[in-house]
Amino acid sequence: MRPRVARPRRGGAPGADRGTAARRGRGRHRDRLRQHPESGPVTAPDEGALLGHGRTSEVYAYGVGTAIKVYPEGTDRALVAQERDAATLVHALGVPSVRCLGLAERSGRPGVVFDRLTGPGIARQAEKDPRRLPEMSRTLADLHARVHEARTDALPDVRDLAVSLLDTPRLRTLGTVTRTRLRARFRDLPDGDSVLHLDFHPQNVYEHHEGHAVIDWQSACRGPAAADVAMSVVLMREVELFPGTPPLLLALYAASRRAVLRYYLARYLAVSGLTPAEVERWLTCARVLRLGLLDVPSERRRFLRRIEAGSAAVGGPA
């Protein structure tokens, strides 16, 4: 989970009927990732104010009503284009998100331009009034269920992504036998064509116009909804909280996060019909995705240990 940041104000009204848009868009967007109209980046002005930052990017004001998400110098341009394409696709499918305006550069660094959001992150509600935490958590679950209503075959299969990440240097330390066993288990997981975010948590959901918008689509995949819910469980239960936070405040954040997860998961299971067992089956895969997509040194040993245990569990989660 990313640390708290200043709020990037990127906007663009979400579609009015997500389920209808998703069904209509299923076939139409098959080739969207390969045929995006953007031919290349433009240059962003350097004087835009910093709006926010996370572990892997910064967000700056960019013109009137727009913002640019800037990646570190040396970032693979193909990965930046991948976020542009995924963000464009999900917005066209009616997923509550912000409109993507294409690639740009700022001081030679690659970036993606978005409309600015019109409101704060939904976590702000609970920060101001802890009594609203259950309401915020249920809103989170309802939005996640709406994301999963969208269907596509234009995004990578989450199982293929997990298998490919097993060959990254930090996961090769698991050893050949463990990785072979995990590959077989991941390939045996259920197929699906729902849009998956893979970084869905309160800090990536914002109030926007009359509704909400989900940001940060660089990890988007397709698959069964249970895979994305498992990833959110891992993010809200196992990842490191805000490095450098005083211990007392850290304990408060941890207690709040546990409560959010409890309300979120109960609501999501109720509205979707998904079972706890379906989510649990994806937990080890979700840990591989977390470690493979974002290597946080302080998390590495703990995640490797849990992945190893998950691979060895007979009849346990994959």
Automatic annotation (TrEMBL):
What residue intervals traverse the membrane? none
For this protein, the record's Pfam families field holds:
APH
Provide the Aminoglycoside phosphotransferase domain boundaries: 52-237
Keywords in UniProt for this one?
Transferase
Q: Does the entry feature the keyword Transferase, yes or no?
A: yes
Q: Which InterPro entries match?
A: Aminoglycoside_PTrfase, Kinase-like_dom_sf
An annotated Gene Ontology molecular function:
transferase activity
Q: Where is this region: Disordered?
A: 1-51
- The superkingdom listed in its UniProt entry is Bacteria
Composition bias, Basic residues? 1-10, 21-33
Q: Is Cell inner membrane included in the keywords of this UniProt record?
A: no
The identity of this protein, by name, is Aminoglycoside phosphotransferase family protein
Species for this entry: Cellulomonas triticagri
